[in-house]
Every structure is written in C-alpha cells, then in structure tokens.
Amino acid sequence: MSDLPGSLSWLWKGCSLLIILFMVACSTPDNHAIRFGLANAPISLDPRFATDATSARINRLLYQRLVDFDEQFRVVPSLADWQRINNTRYRFTLRDVGRLFENGEHLTATDVKATYDYILDAGNASPHRGSLLNIKDIVVIDDNTVDFMLNNADPLFPSFLVIGIVPASVATQGQVLNKYSIGSGAFRFVDWPGNDQLIIERRRDKQRIEFIHVQDTTVRVLKLIRGEVDMLQNDLPKELVRYLEKRESIDVDHLMGNNFSYLGFNLQDPLLADKRIRQAIAHALNKKSLILFLLGGETVSANTLLTPDHWAGLKTSQSYDYNPEFARQLLKSAGYHQSHPLQLEYKTSSDPFRIRIATIIQQQLAEVGIKVRLRSFDWATFYGDIKAGRFQMYSLSWVGIKNPEIFRYVFHSESIPPKGANRGRYSSTVVDELITKAELSVDADQRVKYYQQLQQQLLQDLPYVPLWYEEHFMATNKNISGYQLVKDGNYDGLNQVMKKL
Amino acid sequence: MLRFILARLFSTIIVVFGVACLVFLLIHLVPGDPVDMMLGENAQMADRQALREALGLNQPVGIQLLNYFVHLLQGDLGTSLHSREPVVQILAERIPATVELAIASLLISCLIAFPLGIIAALNKGRAWDKTAMGVSMLGVSVPNFLLGPVLILVFSIYLGWLPVSGRDGLVSMILPAVTLGTALAAVLSRMIRSTLLEVLHEDFIRTARAKGDSYYQVVIRHALPNAMLPIITLLGLQLGVLLGGAVITETVFSWPGIGKLTIDSIMKRDYPVIQACVLLISLTYVVVNMLTDLVYAWIDPRIRLGQSS
C-alpha cells in the first residue's frame, strides 16, 4: 500500500484504530444493579418542584413525606402521626423511622417547617404552592412536633401534606436539588451521569437501582429481552405486552389502576348542550370490546372519576350500556337521522395510543349515524385549545387522583380555566351545593354520602362520558422477584425487589 | 485568505442574527405555554402567574427579545425553563455525542460509498453498476426507524454482538452510525459514480493508461483526486446535516444528541433551549461551509494558485 495517496492511507489507519478500540472498549455494566426502563426521563429530584409523574415517583423513594394513602386512598401517617387540636390547628408528631438525611443530618420539625415555608413563599415559584394556600402559619413546638395553622377549617387537610421533606439547611440557603437529592427516604442518591441513567441505592441492603431512559417502545422491549434492562412498567402498546407475555424468559403482571380516562364535552356548544346527544354518545360506545381488544386485561370500565374502592367512590350498578338502537332513537328525538346526520369534531393529542382509541370511538359513533372529524395536535397546542374552550369533544385522563377535592377543581361552575379545570364549562347549582356541603361536613359518613350523591348527579348530567380506569402492568426478567404493582402506578415495589444472579 | 475569513465571519453574524430573531418570534407566537407544560394540569392560576413572572415570560415579546440578545452578547445562553439547568451545560453534554455520531456515520458512509461508486463507474452499464446502485438505493429507501430496530434485532438479540441502545462506549456507536451511514452512502455513491465517469473521459486518464498505470492506480491516483471537489461539497453538506442532529436515529438508539434535544424542547416550548439549539445548528452550517471552502483550496492546487495570482 505504499503508493496510496496520503488521504487514503489515513483512512486505513483510522479504520484499524477504530476496530482495535472497538474490541477493547466494551463496557461492562454493573450486573448487580436492577435496571428499570423508563419511557420518560425524570426531570427534577427536588420534591418542592417536581411535577411530572416519573420524578414524583422516584422522589417517593428518596424522601419521606408526612402522610401517605392506604388501599382506599384514605390518608394515613407516614413520617408523622397527627392530631386535630381544633378546626384550624393540626399537630404533627414525627415518628422514629426515616429521620436520617443523606448528608448525615437528623430530620426534625425544623426541617418540616423549612420545607413547607419554602414552598409557600411565592417568590420561589413552587408549583405545589397552590394546594397549600390554606396554611396560615407553621409553628415548631419541639424537635419532634410541629403545628399547622389553617385559614379555613378543612377536615381533609392532612391529605395535602405529601411533599418530600428536605433539610432546613437546603431550604433556607435557597438551594435547588434538581440533579441530586438530599432526602431521608428508603433510598439514597448515587449518581446521575447523563440524561438517560439515574442510579439510586436502597439503604438497608445497598441494592442499586438504575433508571434507564429509553424513549422508543420497541427498543425498550428489545433491551428487556436482551437483559440490558431488568424491568419495565407501563407505557407499552397492547401488542407488545402480548408479545412479552408469550416469551418464557419474561414475567408479566397486571393490576387495575386509578388513571381515569374520559370523553369531555363543551357544554356551551349548541349541539352538545343537549343532554340527549351526550346520552346517545354514551350508549353508542362499546366499552367492553375496546377494553377487550385494545386495552390491558385489568382495565375496568368506569362510571366516575374515583375508583370504586376509593373511600368516596360511587357504588352503583347504573351505567350507560352499549345500546346503539337506543342511541339512534335519542338522536332522532333531537332531530338527527340518516339524511341529516350529526357532525362533531373530536380533538386529541398526537400520542399514537390516544389517536388509536379516538379512531375506534369515531367508528363506533359512525355506526349510530354521528359523523366525527378527528383532529390531533401536539400536546401543547391541544392543551391550549381545551383550556380556551376551542373544542367540541376531546379525550384525556386524570392521573393518580386520590383527593375528592378534584370535584371542585373539575366540575364547580367557578372552576372554568384558568381558575380550574372545568373545561367543558359545566354549571349545575345542585353539584355546586353538594361540593361545598361535602367539603365542610365534619362527619365522615355524611361526607361519603354527599360525594355519592354528587357522583350520581354527574353520571346523570354527563359533562364527561366516563371511559375506563387504565391498568398497570409490569414485565420483568425471570431473575427479578418481589416487585408488587401499586394502584397509582408508583415505584414503591422497588423497596422489596430482589435480583437473583 | 484573511480577507476571505473576515468576510465570511461578517456574513455569518448577519445570518445567525436573522435566524435567531425569526425563531424567537415564531416560537413565542406558536400556541402552547411552557408554564402549562411544566406545571401540568393541577396547578392553580396563582402558581402559573408566579412561575411566569419568575421566568420573565410575562413581559412583552419585544422586551424578551432584547433581554435575550443582551445576555447572548455576554455569552449567557440562559437557563432551561424545565430543568433550571444552564443551557450551556445541557449543550456541553450533548455536543460531544452528536459530534461522535456524525463523524462515525460519515466514516461509515465513505466506507460504503467509495467502493460502490468506484465499482459502478468502472463497470458502467454492466451488472456490477446496476448492483452497486441498487444496493445504495436500498440504503436510502429503508427508513431509519425501521433499519435501526432491524439491526438491533439481528446484531443485539439474535447474534448478541452489540448493545441495544444508549451511549455506552465505542461499541454502542456502531449500530446508530451504520443506520445513519447507509442512508448517506446512497447519495454519496451516486455522486462519486457520476463525477468519476466525467473525469474518466478526460485526456490525462488516457495518457496515464497509455503510460502503463494499472486501472487501480489510474483511479486512485489520478481520477479520484480530480473528482473530489463535488464529493467534498456533498460531504460538507452531509456533515452539517449530521451535526444538526439526526432525530429519529437518536430516538431509536437513545443517543443523547442535539437533534433530539431540539425536538423535545420544541414540544415542551422550552424557549431558551430551542434558541440555543437553533443558534448552534446555524453556526455549525456556516462553519462547516467555511471549512469546506478551505478544504477545496488545500486539495486543489488550481484554486490555491488561482487565489494568490
């Protein structure tokens, strides 16, 4: 090769170097760590700022919070027990577990006050401030006791104190813990080298968990099959779940969740203001076949926002069954038939799964004579449109709802955006009254009764057509054991998970 | 040479300034609110207002544009609205990954395109020509989001030679670089074939053959160097495109590059990051163009001598 011109011999040298480097530079991943595949990367490890689901779920592992929720989504003590001193004063007493911060400091009432004061300070622009506006003052009684004073009586106040506690030194110095954590949770932060790999360690047995971000669904599944990832939770289309179920080296588990999917209407639209149209749409949907063929096995048809096992959930057998004939009759009584069909526009985001669901709903509605025009937009534009009321029909989900104050936020006549999320501009004096009565009632049983009446009324009025509660599912390699799915889809199962090597 | 560089620099500044202004105005006018994206659905109006103020988004667009340029002139690219990280840090993490992938893809496309193009040119009209061009057509027709997973299936799952995705050592660069490189190779091989064919008809080629040079020597020492100019133009353009980021390949292989960063920040309406990415991409194109011109001068003595006279 001696007569090769300079540029070409360079090329050969470069290639051989590359080949040698390739053979030498194979990286060995840490086999002891449990690798958890994520569809979306976490954004912030600071519980005072994180709002996205992934960050919130990981922060649950890194930080302790004052309260938590049980199987019926009732609020229970986590870091602290509480006592209601009077209508507007709650006393929280810290328990013994979860008091050691990652930096060696001991968690005291001062840290609790500092965390919540930081959030309540409007200058810090914390997104969680809005849910805590009822707090008037926070007083430290001693190292283990702190009092919260409220502006207005709220029997459900403890359920808002779900924010992870950060050390007072962090809060008072104005430090923001975006890229690492200083918490007192069951896990401690190890490293977050790039955007796609976050490493934490379980304190009690030093088991490492690596969160690996893989956006493409097919590649995520391939990584699981090859063993580069040990477990996946959610965010896969049904055909990939079925594919994983068939493989012998993968275990798949399902559980009913509390993410509520619904069809929303604009009640100020002249067509949809007519209740018969909304009822016709409800009867035209064949939810059973949608759930059977498109969604996972543990998906459950829904009648209301709260799941039936929620303490305030609606216990009813009434529902809008699949009855296309009745739907056609309703449409006829409203003046729509074959030669004068009803035409509606259905907006959705650009998520392929949502578009698929919308296409099937479009076809089911076509069978009763409703012509639906489907329009999909990128999320930001879609969200802007529904807030502004520029829509007739849309579908979305409410994710992880535990607190029945959601009813005020979504259905009260004063909650029209930007004040709340009553995007359909629904207005009912009956519902407004029931919401207020339920919020103010001190008797727990009475409160449940009001919420039942409220949800019954909503089912009759149909500002939403309730669709279903999506299921959670889990796919793990055979050497992973002990992980339990949880109803709201969080990663608490990582407290118990084990890997056999 | 110096005057040439200065003139280029001046036009660069004007182009980049124009692009930055246009993108800034467009992205602020498009529907969609970054505050909504950050806070999600459950946030109260008061929180949105507070966040908007904290991020300076409540000021009129003109003032925001002015602030942006003032900071830019001081070298401050701002902080990401979403992760509160300085944009410079985010770019610093992503640029090396993009550069690596770009160079590797370009190398692979050269490795594929040069042999294919040379074989096709030397065997014009015959079976080899048609096969070579057919193979390169395949490279450009198969889309990246299909080729990528297929390569993963074959080389990672069935054969188990290479990792599935992620940026994890040199080995993990092979599949994404091949995915990108095969698409580029198609265009490149056609260009090599057509320029070689033109050069092979020149008189000096006939002279070299008559002197007794072998076919191989004729092509490599005489024909190819004379055909290089259009090929270098194309390589320069392709490098510019690659440095701008190959979004689909980056998504499929979880490669933390600039392309994916740009698309993600557009979706989230993360204005400072979008601005910085667009600025970077336009600067890259300009620099690559300038380098291409310099390479012309280096490789072709006619241009060098022409300038000095």
SSE blueprint:
The complex is a heterodimer of chains A (501) and B (309).
Chain A: H1 6-24, E1 34-38, H2 53-62, E2 67-69, E3 75-77, E4 80-86, E5 89-94, H3 109-120, E6 135-142, E7 145-150, H4 168-172, E8 187-194, E9 197-202, E10 208-213, H5 217-226, E11 231-233, H6 238-246, E12 250-265, H7 275-284, H8 287-293, E13 300-301, H9 324-333, E14 342-349, H10 352-366, E15 370-377, H11 379-388, E16 393-398, H12 406-411, H13 429-440, H14 444-461, E17 464-477, E18 480-481, E19 498-499
Parallel strand pairs in A: 1-10, 1-11, 14-15, 14-16
Antiparallel strand pairs in A: 2-3, 4-5, 5-7, 6-7, 8-9, 9-10, 11-17, 12-16, 12-17, 13-17, 18-19
Chain B: H1 2-29, H2 34-39, H3 45-55, H4 61-73, H5 87-122, H6 127-141, H7 144-158, H8 174-200, H9 203-211, H10 215-243, H11 247-252, H12 258-268, H13 271-299, H14 301-308
What tags apply to this protein structure?
heterodimer, A: 501 residues, alpha+beta, 11-stranded mixed β-sheet, 4-stranded antiparallel β-sheet, B: 309 residues, mainly alpha, MetI-like fold, 14 helices, 0% strand, flat
